[in-house]
Amino acid sequence: MKRAKDWLPGLLLVSPSIILVAIFVYGLIGQNIWTSLNVSRNVVTDKITNPGGWQNYTQLLGSADYQHALWNLLVLTVVFMGGTMIFGLLMAILLEKGINAEGVFRSVYLFPMAVSFIAAGVVWRWLLSPAEGPDQAIGLNQLFIKLGLPELQNAWWSADNRFSMAAMAIPAVWQLSGYVMALFLAGFRGISADQREAARIDGASEWQIYRFVLFPQLSPIALSALIILGHMSMKMFDLIYSIAGANSYQAAVPATLMWTQMFAQNDRVGAAVNATILLTIVAVVVVPYLIYTNRTEREMGS
Fold first, then answer.
1. Could you give the count of Cα atoms lying within 13 Å of 43 in the half-sphere of its Cβ?
2. Most C-beta atoms within 10 A of its C-beta, which of 63, 237, 261, 288?
3. Which residues are within 8 A (CB) of 282 and not within 5 positions of it... i.e. 6 or more apart?
4. How far apart (Å, rounded) are the C-alpha atoms in residues 82 and 169?
5. Taking the model in full, what pTM does it have?
6. How many helices (H) and strands (E) does the chain have?
7. CB of 249 within 8 A of CB of 268?
8. Which of 222, 234, 231 is nearest to 292 (CA)?
9. All residues at 6 or more sequence positions from 92 whose CB lies less than 8 Å from its CB, including other chains
10. In this structure, are residues 239 and 117 in contact, taking their beta carbons and an 8 Å threshold?
């Protein structure tokens, strides 16, 4: 009875949140999975579009369009995460050196993050225009012509190759590099200056200080940034939609297929299958991070 008095008030305090999360998060996830296993028919032709059960998943995963979308998602995620981490770290290192007008540079680096993906997409749609030639080129292709480098012109995201989606990651890297910079800069500022001085006294070079003293202590921040960026790339829709348009096959990813092929055709079962697959991919990335975080906290607590 005495133990109940210790934990019961706390449980009653958080119970409304637990109930809401159970209903509107996990309950809806369960409903989505249940919907994904149903049988569905085309409302016009009355033909079965989803046979039901796990065949819905094998049918979607086996489709050429969805495999193309998954490949695009992989290319986008790798380039987006790699570029954002590299540029964010470089900017953090430059600011960490204590340059003049640091506040101005911080604001400049962080400003793209304040711009919505839709607004940025409108601008980058012009910059990444696939039109080429002195009469038709605009954006970056026109810039290359003005600089006397016409050979650098390309079709960007609409190019007919397996890695054209890498161009779609450019505006995403531009927007999120400042966020990663802020994370790394906070990590640098949290490391005691005594550690650097001790390393310099021991004869370590500046590179060795970063390699063996600073970077290892930033690994939790880097892991958190990778998880956040990976999660964002999985569900990226508005940027791709505003740049490539509604029905672009070259720039298709599972999130855009959800809208253009499933919602537009009232295919609720197919949309639920797609959403469950995306949820599974995100879980594969996030769950190991949560396990690692809990393990680290227990080791620190002990």
1. 7
2. 261
3. 230, 231, 234, 235
4. 10
5. 0.86
6. 14, 2
7. no
8. 222
9. 180, 181, 182, 183, 184, 185, 187, 188
10. yes
Cα 300 to Cα 90, 262, 293, 294, distances in angstroms: 30, 47, 11, 10
144-188 confidence digits (pLDDT tens): 999 999 998 988 988 888 899 999 999 999 999 999 999 999 999
Residue 99 is which amino acid? Answer: I
CA distance linking residue 16 with residue 271, whole number of Å: 30
* CA nearest to 175, candidates 89, 110, 236: 110
Q: Which CATH code fits 50-301?
A: 1.10.3720.10
Q: Is 197 exposed, middle or buried (0-12, 13-18, 19+ CB in 10 A)?
A: exposed
For residues 237 and 194, give the distance between their C-alpha atoms in angstroms, rounded to a whole number.
46
What's the farthest any 2 CA atoms get from each other in the chain? 83
Token pair for 193: 């200056």
pLDDT tens, position by position, 97-152 = 877 888 888 888 889 988 888 999 999 999 999 988 888 899 999 999 999 999 98
CA angle 227, 233, 234 (to 5 degrees): 90
Helix (H, G, I), strand (E, B) or coil at 109: helix
At 97, which amino acid appears? Answer: K
Instruction: Answer positive or negative: Cα dihedral of 12, 14, 17, 20.
Output: negative
Give the residue from 274, 270, 196 showing the smallest Cα distance to 235: 274
Task: End-to-end CA distance of the chain: give it in Å, rounded.
Answer: 29
Distance between CA 51 and CA 39 in Å, rounded? Answer: 5
